Amino acid sequence: MNSQDAQNHVQDPGATVEVETDRLALMARAHQAVGNLSEILTPLAAAFNKKGHSLYLVGGSVRDAFLGELGHDLDFTTDARPEDTRDILDAYADVVWDTGIAFGTLSAEKHGQQIEITTFRSDVYDGNSRNPEVTFGDTLEGDLIRRDFRVNAMAVEIAADGALTFHDPVGGLDDLLLQRLDTPATPEQSFNDDPLRMLRAARFVSQLGFKVAPRVVSAMTDMASQITRITAERVQVELDKMILGKCPEDGIDLMVETGIAEIIYPEIPAMKMTQDEHMQHKDVYAHSLQVMRQAIDQEEEPDLVLRWAALLHDCGKPDTREFSEDGRVSFHQHEVVGAKLVRRRMRKLKYSKHMVSDVGQLVFLHMRFHGFGEGQWTDSAVRRYVADAGELLPRLHKLVRADCTTRNKRKAARLQATYDHLVERIEDIAAREDLAKVRPDLDGNEIMEILGIPGGPQVGKAWNFLKELRLERGPLERDVAIAELKAWWEGEHNE
Hints:
With 495 residues, the chain is an alpha/beta fold.
């Protein structure tokens, strides 16, 4: 892979040698990553070359190749116009679809590899929305300089014979070596063109573990209000990608530090409450980040619901903090208030009903366990814990365990042992009963037949009575359930 336009601003000779060694190592890694796909990429490049066009692997795909993380979704740019790209892909790929041909983008699949190709762009922004007036460009450099960050503004040209040529007009490889996020143009111009790039900065901090250049942080702080130009749906997508990153706490910190979180998710910075003079409570914000990290450490794979619930489990504390006459602090029913805040905010961000319900329910339930430690729960209480959690129970287990952040090792061990005991109780009852499906011992049709009533609200009331009875006493013999139903029905009509 030849290097063109690569820049090196390091002046110290020793440091220069070290940087150049790192650079060569990255080059070799990227060359191997792209070369491994030569059977797919070389014929594609040859097809473009035959039509008189060039093809470049670009953006995040190049960055990930350098990092050794090149995936199955590949981004390309070309000087070919969309209609020409379509003709080439139709003859080359297994499947072709229109991703956004008005924006110059077409997608295809070849041997399981996802390919997205976009014509050079040199868009013009009006400064009022993030939607540009789409203008196709004629040069690779013009296309690269309009991208969000320098590390995403590198390209690898693929020749018809498979030769690779590296293009880096804005110094993206230097930023990659320094693990730095900076913009090709001034950050003010970049964020004015597309304010979503400020959220993308937080996302890349989380995903890549990079630091943000001081001028970018400054511009994000000054221009935070511009994020209101972005739709709730787009904000949601970036937030989720950030939360699912390797270091989500760093991305969240950046949003809080720059004031962006105050605008799009104010419940998060609100947790940065000043501690009382007696230090009676933890820094709720720092605690919440730690709980999220401890929840992540229990994951088998990234879990969006668990991570959001862990981050927000205590977001009701700012609204419920009270001080007693002796100066002690309390947060009574903060889980109830927090669940309401979470549901309201997630609805505003256009999350699905299922997502809103799951995260809200975990926040609502996260304190329930602490009643178990105050005395021996009855089997009925254990059943209700399982029934209220439903399919969220494995996540609730992880959240409750993660919520232990005390430095007191003896207290931490006691809490974990108490939860171990609750899990043993659940498993013991589950061995005797089907706790996963706690339902009444009689269904709706049986209720109507036994009571001699038609379908309607009364059947629902009877069903709920039997459900509560099932939770309280466990499975009942059929004749016992029928007798209890008839006794309840008689009582209902004799009141």
